[in-house]
Amino acid sequence: MLLRRGFFVWLLPAALILPVWLVVGWAIFSASGWALLGVLLVAAPSVLVGEVIAAMLIRARPTVRRQRAVSWQDVLAVSVWHVLVIAFGCFFQYAFVPILILAILAFLGLFWSSLGQLWGEARGSFAKMTPGTGPGDLPYEESVADRARQHGEVIIVNEVGRPGDGRSTH
Questions:
Q1: Which segments cross the bilayer (predicted)?
Q2: What b-and-e string marks burial along 87-119, b requiring 16 or more CB atoms within 10 Å of the CB?
């Protein structure tokens, strides 16, 4: 549970730390100027947006919010994607393109996994809402106005508005 809670906390800071790592990795590993251009214009913003989307999808699930811990499936998907983003930031010349492709595929897997888990939890809550469970399906009880008249609990508030504000001008 501690590891899953750690990932829950890590999701939002990762949205800033991983794009910064790409720029720092460029400087540490002495990549080309074109690589910096690609990092600044494409890679860092893509990781930032992807990380925010992933965090929102994961944190939108009721079980994640209630437990303040992600699922083990999220731990696996996020770990794979983050390791690939960190490896991409090392700018290995011989494996640059395969790492990039794997990182994109890992994000897509994380996205669809999170979306599927969110849908699964939402579908479960929709199934609980069967006919006969809404407020309109409750047995008839005397109206609130009738009860108030019987018990002398009537308070009348007259609100007078100014012309043009959408309220009554009585």
A1: 7-29, 35-58, 70-94, 100-119
A2: bbbbbeeeeeeebbebbeebbeebbebbeebbe
pLDDT tens digit at each of 170 positions of the chain: 889 999 999 999 999 999 999 889 888 887 777 778 777 888 889 999 999 999 999 999 988 989 999 999 999 999 999 999 999 988 888 888 899 999 999 999 999 999 999 998 887 665 555 665 555 555 555 566 666 667 666 666 766 666 666 665 55
Neighbours of 51 (CB within 10 A): 25
Q: What is the pTM of this model?
A: 0.69
Q: DSSP string spanning 55-76?
A: HHHHHTSHHHHHHT---HHHHH
How far apart (Å, rounded) are the C-alpha atoms in residues 66 and 131?
A: 27
Tokens 């011989």 identify what position? 94
Cβ atoms of 4 and 72 within 8 Å: the answer is yes
Q: Which two tokens stand for residue 15?
A: 């949205």
Who's near 130: CB < 8 A, 6+ residues apart?
none
Domain positions in the chain are 2-128
How many CB atoms sit inside 10 A of residue 28's CB? Answer: 12
What is the residue whose two structure tokens read 């508030």? 157
